[in-house]
Amino acid sequence: MDTQYTQQDQSRLFILSCIALTVTAMTFAIRAGILGDLGTQYGLSGTELGLISSMAFLGFPIATMVGGILYNMFGPRMLLWIAFIGHAVGLILTIYSSGFWGLIISTFLIGFANGMVEAACNPLIAETHENNKTTMLNKFHVWFPGGIVIGALVSTGMTELSYGWELQIAVMLIPTAIYGYMLLKSNFPKLNPLIMSSSENIKNLFSPLYIFLVVCMTLTATTELATGQWINEILAASGAHPMLTLALVTGIMAVGRYFAGPIVHSLNPVGVLVASAVLSTLGLYLMSQLQGTPVYFAAVVFALGVTYFWPTMLGCVGEYTPKTGAIGMSLIGGAGMFAVSIWTPIIGRWMDEAKAQALTQNLSENEMALASGQAVLSSLLVLPAILIVAFAALYFYLHKRGQNHTAVSEAG
C-alpha cells in the first residue's frame, strides 16, 4: 500500500464506489419505468424495446472482460474515469436521442459504464479492506438493490408529477457528477500484485464445475434482472403499482444482502441456492395468478428468492473453483449480464405475441394487458424451475465429493 494512503482516503474511495454503483442501479430502475413512454413516443414495439434494454446488459459483460485486463495494466482510477465518461455521455445521448438507433447506442454506453464500475470497484474494495473483505463487499453491493429503490421512487414520483422521461434520465447526471468530482480529489493506493497468474486463472475456467456454474448464472441473472426490466409492463394492469412493487422487491434485497454475512456463514451455499430457486419460482407463479393487493405478497416471495442468487453464485465460484481467481469471478458476472441481454428481447417478443393472442379474445384494453402480462410471467417461471433441478443435482454431487460446506460470499 502507498504510505501516503490514509484511512480517510479509504473511506472516500468506498463512498465513491457506492455512489457509482448507485448510478448503475438507477439506470436499471428508471429505464424500466420509462420503457412504455419510449415505446409511445417513438412508436416502438415490445421487441424493439427489448433490444434497446438488452444493450445495457450487453455492454456490461464486454466492459467486465476488458476491465479485468485494464485493471491489471492501469489500476482502478482509469476504469472509474471510463465509467464516468460512459455514464455522462450515455445519459446525455439518451435525452437527445431521436429514435431507435440513438437509444441503442446510448443504452450500450450506459451498460458499458456499469460494467466498468463493477470491474474497478470489486477488486479495489477487496484490496483496500484486507481484514474485512466480506463485510465491506456486501455493504458495497447493498447499493445495487438500494439504488434501484431510489431510482424506482424517483421515477414514480416524477411520473406522478407529470415530468417527462427526459428529466428522469437527467436526474441521474447528479450522482454521476458527484462521483466524477470525488474521483478528481481521491488518492488511490498502490495495489498488491495478483496472487495467482492470469494464465492459471484462464486454464481453470474450463473445469466442468465452473462451466456448470456459468450456465446456472445465466438463468439466475435472467430471473432476477430481466423480470425487473419488464415489471412495469407486466404488472401494469394487475392492480398493484409496478414501480412501487419494484421498490418493494429491491428494498427486501438490500436489507437481505446487508445481513448476508451471518446467513452465508451458517448455511450451506448450494442449499441457499435451492431455496432461492424454489421461492423465485413460487413468486413468479403467484404474480402470474394474483391481482390487486395480493400481488405485493407475491412480490415479497419473489424478492426473497432472488436476493441471494447473485452473491451466492459468486461465493460458490470462490469456494468450489478457487483457482479461477478474479477472472473467474468477473467472467461469471459478465456471463449473467450477457444472458440477460439475450433474454430481454425474447421476453419482449413474448409480450408482443401475448398481446396479439389477447386481441383475438375480444378483451378490454385493461384485460388484454393483464392477460398478456400474466402469460409472460408464466413463461418466465420456467427458468427458476430449471434451477431447482440443477441446484439439487449440484448439492448431491458436492455432497458425494465431500465439498458441501459453508462458503464465504465475497460479493452482493
TrEMBL record:
Subcellular location: Endomembrane system
Tagged with keyword Transport: yes
Cytoplasm as UniProt keyword: no
Main localisation: membrane
InterPro entries linked: MFS, MFS_dom, MFS_trans_sf, MFS_Transporter
Major facilitator superfamily (MFS) profile domain segment(s): 13-402
UniProt keyword list: Membrane, Transmembrane, Transmembrane helix, Transport
Signal peptide feature range: none
Membrane topology annotation: Multi-pass membrane protein
Transmembrane domains' residue ranges: 12-30, 50-71, 78-96, 102-121, 142-159, 165-184, 205-222, 234-255, 267-288, 294-314, 326-346, 375-398
Gene3D superfamilies with a match to the protein in the record: MFS general substrate transporter like domains
PANTHER family: BYPASS OF STOP CODON PROTEIN 6
Protein family: Belongs to the major facilitator superfamily.
Protein name in UniProt: MFS transporter
Organism in which the protein naturally occurs: Agaribacter flavus
Lineage summary: Bacteria, Pseudomonadati, Pseudomonadota, Gammaproteobacteria, Alteromonadales
